[in-house]
Every structure is written in structure tokens, then in C-alpha cells.
Amino acid sequence: MRCPECGHRRALRQRWIENELHREGPRVVLPVMMRCLAAAILLVFPWLLRAVLSESFMDACGLSFRPSAFWVDVALGPAAFVASILLTRPIGAQGADGFGLTASSRLRPWISVLNVLWLPYSLLMLMAIFASPAPPNPTAPSPQDEWIVAAGVLVVPAQIAWVLSLFHMGNIADYLRDAFLRRIATTWCWLWGVFVVVALPVVATKASRSQAPDAWSQAMQIVIAMSNLGLAWGFVMASLVWWSTTHALTLAYEELEREDRRARREQERYPTP
Fold first, then answer.
1. Rounded to whole angstroms, how far apart are CA atoms 165 and 231?
2. 39, 183, 230, 271 - which has most CB atoms within 10 Å?
């Protein structure tokens, strides 16, 4: 909806934040803000680890150590697990039902069940790092490829839990009257759905028809790369939700301070006998 006076969409959101959201702000917006900040820090840490463990950084430091590129996937598993818990944990405060963060949310049981798969996924990628990349014979996959295939199978349902977590953040965006954040969550839900329904069967069919021993490993690496993109998408959205809730919380405390000043002025003007 647009404002009937100025015709601008943002006016409705600004009025909602200033006039209504401030009453639940300190109790609800503050926990959401802190959780989104913690989730954003957790999700960006594996990419910082990848930058530190890159070959260019090692060469700049004069080190001959060449770490595996799969270390970022090992770190992304626990980061996604904890971030999903932070973003969907219920808040027992008045007004939390507007965020969809109460204990009666219908999405939370599915998120809790599928979210656990991030931990074995991280363990499988760790096994792939220490496994031998050389196959026992030219026609058989290597032990490293076998671990990667197993991790790729687990990451599909784990990513479904992450999509539900992003949808949860979309509910928060709805409560904040922020249509842009809602579009971000909806866009990734559609992208992942199209990938699972259309692209994933095509990749699996090509891998099954290929005679290369590492065909399934390469196919699962595409799935893992798509999953990593989803986590990066979550980092962007958590950062934007944190910024939006910080803005809302600032306005909330300003409104509460104005109410206190008005109450003090009224008390000074009309003192109690």
C-alpha cells in the first residue's frame, strides 16, 4: 500500500515503526537485532577463513603450506547450524507473535529436524580433506570423491532448513513493513526450489550417464557451491535485517524518550496536590 497523502511506500513503514513498533521494540526488536548480528558474524567467518587460507595469502606470508579449499565447507556447517538456531529461536515477549517467533510457529519443528544435518555434512567434508584424492584404479572414484558425494547428498535437506530460516527472516521483514527484505527471502526460496526441481535432476542425469569416475563428485560440488551461495545470501539478509531492526530500535527508544519528556512536562505543569 502507498500513503494516501504523499503516495510513497516508505511513509507507511516509517509511521508503523514510529507510532506502533516502539511499544514492543525494546522487548522484541532488541533480541532479533542481537541474533541477526551474531548470525551475520558466524556466516561471514568461514569466508574470512577462506581468504586467510588462500594460496595468495600464503605466498604473501612466505609460507609453502597449501590448505584444502574444503576447509570453508567444514566451517560453514557449524556456522549454519548455530545461525539457524539464533534466527528461529522463540522469543517469550509480548508482541513476539508479530515476528512469528513464538514457540507455536509451524516452521520451527521442521527447521530443528533438518538443521541437525549441517553437523554430519561438516564432518563428511572434513573426512574428504584427509582422504586420498588418488583413485585405487583409473575406473573407480577416489576416497575423497566418495566423501564429497555423501556430503552433497546431506546438504540438500540441510539447505531446505536454511531456506525455511530465511523464510522466517522474511516474516520479520513483514513485521517491519520492509518489502525489500521480504523479496530477498522469497527470491532465494524460488531460486533454490528451481535448482532442486530442474537443475539438480539434470546434473544427476549427466553424472549417471558419464563414464568419468569423478562425475558424481563434480555434480555434488555444484550442489555444495549452490548451498554455499545460499548461506552467503543468508549473511546478506541477516545483515540487512540487523540494520533494519537497529533503525527500528533507535526510533523506539527515541519515541519512549519523547513520551517520558512529555510526561515530565505534564507533571511539572500540573503538579499532583
1. 11
2. 39
CA pair distance 250, 174, nearest whole angstrom: 19
Q: Do 214 and 145 touch, CB atoms closer than 8 A? A: yes
Give residue 200's pLDDT: 87
Please give the torsion angle defined by the CA atoms of residues 197, 168, 186 and 180, in that order, rounded to the nearest 10 degrees. -160
With cell 517467533, the residue in question is: 101
**Cβ-contact 96, 26 below 8 angstroms:** no
Question: Would you say 123 and 151 are in contact if contact means Cβ atoms under 8 Å apart?
Answer: no
H-type helices in the chain, by residue range? 9-19, 30-52, 55-60, 71-88, 108-115, 118-130, 143-175, 179-194, 200-209, 215-269
pTM of the predicted structure, to 2 decimals: 0.76
Q: Are 144 and 136 in contact (CB under 8 A)?
A: no
Alpha carbons 237 and 31: distance in angstroms, whole number: 16
The per-residue pLDDT for 53 is 67
Is 231 in a helix, a strand, or coil?
helix
3-class secondary structure, 7: coil
Query: 74: how many CB neighbours lie within 10 A of its CB?
Result: 21
| CA neighbor of 70 nearest in space, from 153, 156, 128 | 128
Q: Which amino acid is at 187?
A: T
Output the CA angle 49-50-55, nearest 5 degrees.
Answer: 120
d(Cα 165, Cα 189) in Å, to the nearest integer?
A: 10
Is residue 9 pLDDT above 70, yes or no? no
Gyration radius of the chain's alpha carbons: 24
Cell numbers that stand for 239 in this block: 545483515
d(Cα 265, Cα 254) in Å, to the nearest integer? 17
Q: What is the pLDDT of residue 265?
A: 80
Q: At a CB cut-off of 8 Å and minimum separation 6, what does 172 contact?
A: 32, 99, 100, 101, 181, 241, 245
